[in-house]
Amino acid sequence: MPHKFVMTGGGTGGHVFPAIAVARVLRERGHHILFIGTERGIESRLVPDAGFEMRHIRIGQFNRVGIRRKVQTAGQLPFSVGTASRILRDFAPAAVFSMGGFVAGPVMLAAILRKTPLIVMEPNAVPGFANRRTARYVHRALLGFDSTRRWFPAQRSEVTGLPIRAEFFSVHPKTAGAFTILITGGSGGSRTLNRASRESWPLFRDRAPDIRLIHQTGNAEHEALAKEFASSGLRGEVVPFIRDMAGAFAQADVVIARSGAGSVNEIAAARMPSILVPFPFAADDHQKKNAEALCQARAAHMVLDSEMNGERLFQEAASLRANPSELERMRERVTPFARPGAAERAADVMEEAAAAGGR
């Protein structure tokens, strides 16, 4: 029997892409999907591009912003919850799926107030603020790490891994062509990785001119970096955003990235060797914990944000390039972190919630 479902989560690709992965499975099963997001967030582009309907609410960030923005967001909250509640009333979903991000908070509160079954995905080792606050009200919590269970009711949580688009599991190890380094700081880019990449260009040009670089910069610094890269003498491309990240993985020998849950799970799904640079201001330092989980299994290398510069980036990449057997071992060690079927399991849980009527 077809059902209606609401998906929410935004602000970054790490929140949006997993929700889209689940939505695709639900759509294939005949269900009607509606996303709730913001007009300014990345979801406003990615969701329509994926062919899904979207409604908007107005809400700003609360974490990593100044007092003025926090006050502004707090003032918006009652109105955004009211808007989300009206959308849920009119659309009448059988369940709501939340990937987190600042847009998700009002939708989660509206779902709880309307007694609509709420399924949350918490892919990080430490839950985000909204998920911690609403943990006892969720219908089901889908987790990325077993250690995260302690934050949620045991009988209403399970470890599924993060829903990852199927194309990442189809990435095959690169076997020919120039040694290629993919650098990505996420959909918004990373100042640290942008700076380190730029500083590394003369080193690669002088010591390893045959390498190729693919660098996702984010919009803010793209124009200046692209102009400078064009005169660097190196091969590759500097782009603001990569829509086909799985395709970029397929071209790369090693990935240098932040260690948000989305990045870590995509790296695992594609069996990619990686150098992880945790964002030091992530809530509860969860990016460092994510990276440590892979590093303890020797499935990745980690460089702290404060230690990442052009020389360090060059040294880490050159060391791996000189050791193909280590690259292969990293592929083998990261494979157990991949959890195929997470999107399908999340869709199953949504259907189970609909069938149970929220019980």
Key terms for this structure?
359 residues, alpha/beta, Rossmann fold, 7-stranded parallel sheet, 6-stranded parallel sheet
Share of helix, binned: 40-55%
Quickly give the structural class.
alpha/beta
Radius of gyration: 21 Å
Taken as a percent bin, the fraction of beta residues is 15-25%
CATH homologous superfamily heading of the largest domain: Glycogen Phosphorylase B
Order of the strands making up the biggest sheet:
3-2-1-4-5-6-7
Give the averaged pLDDT, no decimals: 91
CATH topology-level name of the largest domain:
Rossmann fold
- Summed up, the domain count is 2
Number of helices: 14
Element pattern in H and E: EHEHEHEHEHEEHEHEHEHEHEHEHHH
CATH architecture of the largest domain: 3-Layer(aba) Sandwich
Just give the CATH class of the largest domain.
Alpha Beta
What low-confidence regions span 5 or more consecutive residues with pLDDT below 50? none
Beta strand count: 13
The outline comes out as globular
* Main sheet makeup: 7 strands, parallel
Task: Tell me the span between the first and last alpha carbons.
Answer: 18 Å
Brief characterization of the structure:
By secondary structure, this protein is α/β, with parallel strands linked by helices. The chain has helices at residues 13-28, 43-49, 67-91, 104-113, 129-134, 166-169, 191-207, 222-230, 245-251, 261-269, 286-296, 310-321, 324-334, 342-356, and strands at 4-8, 32-37, 53-56, 95-98, 118-122, 140-143, 157-159, 180-184, 212-216, 235-239, 254-257, 274-276, 301-302.
